[in-house]
Amino acid sequence: MRGKNPIRKPETSDGSELFVKHIFPTLQGEGLFAGWPAVFVRLGGCNLACTFCDTDFEGYAALGVFKIVERVQELAQNNDGKRVRSLVVITGGEPLRQNIFLLCEALLADGFKIQIETNGTLFRELPEGVDIICSPKNTGAGYFPIRADLLPRISALKFIISASDSNYSDVADVGQNVHATPVYVQPMDEYDVTKNAANRALALELAMQHGYRLSLQTHKLLEIE
Questions:
Q1: Residues with catalytic annotation?
Q2: What CATH number has the domain bearing residue 213?
Q3: Does 10 have pLDDT greater than 90?
Q4: Which residues in 130-163 are b (16+ Cβ under 10 Å) and which e?
Q5: Are 183 and 207 in contact (CB under 8 A)?
Q6: Is the pTM value of this prediction over 0.90?
Q7: Which of 43, 61, 90, 187 is the most exposed place for a label (fewest CB within 10 A)?
Q8: How many CA atoms within 13 Å lie on the side-chain side of 190?
């Protein structure tokens, strides 16, 4: 959305319906589960407006949780009707803007592994067994604090890295040292060949110097969603 999206407040519903942008099969292209066949559930709306955001999460519609689960079950199958996608990625926008407890509970009960992608500024109670990947965002005066109630649940932190934007040129301590949380560094996609090359070089340098894990957006290299 490149920062042009409306900033939306957290929803107060019971979670029996969610605002959904898109549900689709793909590979997880980045971070902790890179390379895993997955079904993405992209929820609508975000509580932030980041200028580098490369995702469209507006234009969503309400959909019942059990309809979402049915669609995930369908898309998790190959052409022979065999389930080959065991990972469900719930993303956005900001997925914790909505009450996703019921959705997570239903998917876990059906044997799926769940990954959440969050910016770390909101918190919802989630069932045990959900992997939370947090990508911290910078206000321009430093990173938004990661919520203290969320930090112990985070499986990995993913920092976006830019050589030309000083707000994103390094990894900040947002609580990962206390909890020994794995850190990934991912080059920012600035849709500029020269800038992107510099971003990859800086992310590589940070990984090599500090022991971070390098994350590349392989879905873009593969030209898939």
A1: 40, 46, 50, 53-55, 117, 219
A2: 3.20.20.70
A3: yes
A4: bbbbbbbbbeeeebeebbeebbebbbbbbbbbbb
A5: no
A6: yes
A7: 61
A8: 18
